[in-house]
Structure formats: C-alpha cells, structure tokens
Amino acid sequence: MSPTWRNWGRSAVAHPVEIARPGSAEEVAAVVREARERGLTVKAIGAGHSFTAIAAADGVQVDVSALGGIRRIDGDLVTIGAGTRLHDLTRMLHTHGLALENMGDIDRQTLAGATSTGTHGTGARFGGLATRIAGATLVTAGGGILTVSERENAELLGAVQLGLGALGILTDITVRAVPAFLLHAIERPAGLEEVLDDFEPRMTAADHVEFYWWPHTERVMTKQNTRLPADAERRPVGPLANWIEERLLSNVVLAAKCAVGRVVPALTPPINRLATRVYGDREYVDHSHEVFTAPRDVRFRELEYALPRAAVPSALRELRRAIDDAGWRIEFPVEVRVAARDDTWLSTSYGRDSGYIAVHRSIREDPAAYFAAAERIFLAHDGRPHWGKMHTLGRAELEPRYPRFADFLAVRGRLDPEHVFTNPYLDRVLS
C-alpha cells in the first residue's frame, strides 16, 4: 500500500510510490537516478506548510528533513542544509550573532520550502526570504550535483532563488544573513478606514508594519516593528502575558470561536467585534525572531495575493463589500502586509513595490466561494498569487504577470527537459 501524505492545511493529499529520506546530496542524486530508471517523477517535500499541492507527488517523494544544519559561515554568507526548519535556523544563527533579515509569522517551514514558494514577511524596504539567497546546491534531473552562486552559474541564480521545486532538489542554500538585532514591537488597535486612508505613510512609517482586519467590524489590529541594535535594552513580554496573547487568545480562543461560528454563524460578527477589544494592545522589545513569529496551532487554509502597493486600499474595500453582500460569516482576520520590489524572477514582488492581502478559513469550513470572490478582486487589481497558497491560475494567466516567466521556463528546459520534477500543480502553472 502506498504511503499517504497530507499538507498542514489539509488542502492537498498524495499517495507517492515511496518516500525517500536521503541524508546527503549524493544520496539525493542516487534517489533521482533510480527514480528516472523506473520512469517515476520526483518531488521534494519539506514541512507541508504550502496550501497548494506544490509538494504532492505520485512518484517518489523526497523528504529533505535530514539535510539540516549550518554547513559553513563566511562573513555574512551562511550555507545551510535545505531541510533546516526556520525555527531551528534562527536559533543557530543567533548563537553566531546573526539573524535572518526578515521573516514571516510562521517558522515551521523548511528553508527550501519557504524560499521555493516565495515566503515573505512585511516591510516596505525588505524582500522575501528568497531575495537573500546568494547561492545553492541542487540535484538536477540527470542525477548530477549543480552549484549556483554569484560567481558560478550566476545566470541561473534569479531562477533558483525561487524555483517552485521545478528545477531540481535543493540540498543546501547560502543565505546572506545580517547581524543579530532586536525589534521594538508596538501592537495597537485602530480604525479600518483610518488605516486605509493613510495606507502608504502608515505602512512605511516603521521598518515592519502589518495589520489584521476582522471582518464584520470597523477595527484592525496593527503591528509596527522597529529595528534596534542587538545591544539595546531587551524588554520581552512576560511568560504569562505572552501565553495569554499568543496561546490563549491567538489559538485557544480562535479555535473556540471557529467552533461556535460553525454551529451558530450569526454569532461570528459579535465575536469578531469582541476580539478587536481584547486582542493586540502591547509594547515590548525582543530578539527579531521572537517578534517576527508566533505559534499557529489552529489549522486553516489561505489565499494570498501581491498587488501593486497603491491598489491595496481599494481591493480591501471591495473585499469588505463582497463579504457583506454575500452574507458570509468570516471567522479569521484578513492580513495585510507590504514588501519592497526585487529582481527574483518569480517573486510576487518582482519589479514593483507590493502590498499583500491574505484571506483565511478554518479547515472545517469550505473556502471556495470566499476565496473565489477574493481572487476575482485581486486579479482585477493586477494581483499575483502566492505560489504556496491556494489559487486557481494556470500558466496562461500567470505568464503575462511575470516579465521573466519565459526565462524561468528556459532554465527549467535546460535543467529538467523531461520534467522529472513535476506534479499536477506544476503542470498547471508551468506547462
């Protein structure tokens, strides 16, 4: 019987012929060569935190979790095993006085999975994780081992930085780290229209700014983080207060709210209004990785699009009208972030300053109608879908949105001409 694989959001399932767990680049290469001899496709998997089926495999699934740890440090360049989980990586970097420049709010992903799908944080001057990649080693479709860096095969770097798992299996990644730093975090409630009317100045007023809007309310919870040197005074949240905010309110109460909303949907709006009064009003200073990330125990599904930054207020207002007109009862907040333009070929922020809108639903709710309405609005505002989050687009819709899309396909044709590293998701978005 074939093993069964499911992603974290329970939105994708696969029954690979087998799951391999190699511990070195050479062992990965041997797995690829054997799979080709058997006529099987090969797909790498990490932590399963993508909401699309990008990691689902019908052939051989390669679990990269054994490819972990820091391999080498050369100044600010850190070479890391591709299967290293982000929460382990940040602790290891911290012991060397280093940090990741920016992070999203979840740190359970592997480095390879996070960079290959375009994981990002927030910050008008900062890009996603993939933009910090200065080199990588990957196993190609022929079972060879290829090194890509700013000096070696440099013409491939813009594609390999965010490769969707379509170019080969990453075995190690060289990241440009930064000196360890603290973040001064201010979390405050605010009015939705106040934030949208002042969107650009507000989102660029500090190093890292984001906000969460609770549907059926007029309120948002804002997060503003300012970078401080590592030797600044640290004023972390106390253990009890942190447990109340990040475990009790953000997870236990959210789970209860989702359960109540399923049984009595009419209670969702008043519960959301209550949440805006009790959640997110604090100030503290802590290590960057402690501030950027938070535990996420309630499983959900997510759709997120990157828009030209100036389009975010209009799109969010349209989303609000769509929710009201349809009469949906949405239990999860809508997340809004920003990022700087970059030159990574398939980055959702390629060539433009971007704003991100993410919508969520509990795994026990059907997200189809809500996500479809959000997607229509985001596409009308020149949106690009996050590669690791749910969307319906195929190559015909995606290619015009990425100026380097044809270049990426050419690199794929060079490194994997027979599409050994494919699956139905990649067939849809690339073929």
From TrEMBL:
Protein's UniProt keywords contain Oxidoreductase: yes
Protein origin, superkingdom: Bacteria
Limits of the FAD-binding PCMH-type domain: 12-180
InterPro entries xref list: ALO_C, FAD-bd_PCMH, FAD-bd_PCMH-like_sf, FAD-bd_PCMH_sub1, FAD-bd_PCMH_sub2, FAD_lactone_oxidase-like, Oxid_FAD_bind_N, Vanillyl_alc_oxidase_C-sub2
Keywords: Oxidoreductase
Signal peptide from the UniProt entry: none
Record-linked Pfam families: ALO, FAD_binding_4
Alphabetical list of NCBIfam families matching this protein: bact_FAD_ox
PANTHER family reported in the protein's UniProt record: D-ARABINONO-1,4-LACTONE OXIDASE, L-GULONOLACTONE OXIDASE
Name this polypeptide is given: FAD-linked oxidoreductase
Organism: Pseudolysinimonas kribbensis
